[in-house]
Specification:
The chain is mainly α. The protein folds into two domains: about 70 residues, no CATH class; about 50 residues, no CATH class. It is about 60% helix and about 5% strand. The chain contains six helices and two strands, in the order ββαααααα. A two-stranded antiparallel sheet has the order 1-2. The longest helix has 25 residues. It is elongated and about 75 Å long.
């Protein structure tokens, strides 16, 4: 399959040098300009995703909200100004997002590493039987971590019909 040829638009217009004389002029290359904007936008989104992966959850929301609000302000005269509203909602949500202190995060990561050692179904069953002896208020965090690890280890629910 080869590349498609681009058609050029030719417009009849009078030549600026000679009044009444007809000549050919080309339409501006808007397709190339659109391609540059699309590529630049895609690269900006990829860069924002990489930055968002490196920052805390509150800052992710704030960064996404700032990006959408800025895009909505820039495009406010067109139909794409609708993205400003979700941007503002994300910025407000960032103000109410709970952040954990550094020592709590390091303790939770250490707990996740320790619970990852229970990898076989038998070990997990024994651990859950032990957790059942205690109230949910005392074991809620452990159960949440175990559920998240089980969901991450489970195969995807959407599978290909071909294998």
């Amino acid at each position: 399959m080869g590349l498609r040829r681009h058609r050029q638009i030719v417009v009849w217009s009078s030549s600026p040098g000679r009044p009444g004389a007809l000549g050919f002029t080309r339409a501006p290359r808007s397709a190339r300009i659109r391609w540059c904007f699309r590529t630049g936008g895609l690269l900006a989104v990829i860069g924002l995703l990489r930055v968002a992966a490196a920052v805390l959850p509150r800052w992710r929301l704030l960064l996404a909200g700032m990006a959408l609000t800025t895009a909505g302000l820039v495009l406010r005269s067109g139909p794409f100004s609708v993205v400003m509203l979700p941007g503002m909602v994300l910025m407000v949500a960032a103000a109410f997002t709970q952040t954990w202190p550094e020592e709590v995060r390091t303790r939770r990561r250490a707990l996740e590493r320790e619970l990852a050692a229970y990898s076989t179904p038998g070990q997990r069953c024994d651990l859950e039987a032990t957790l059942d002896r205690y109230p949910d208020s005392a074991t809620g965090e452990l159960r949440e971590i175990l559920a998240r690890q089980a969901a991450a280890a489970a195969p995807s629910a959407v599978s290909s019909p071909f294998g």
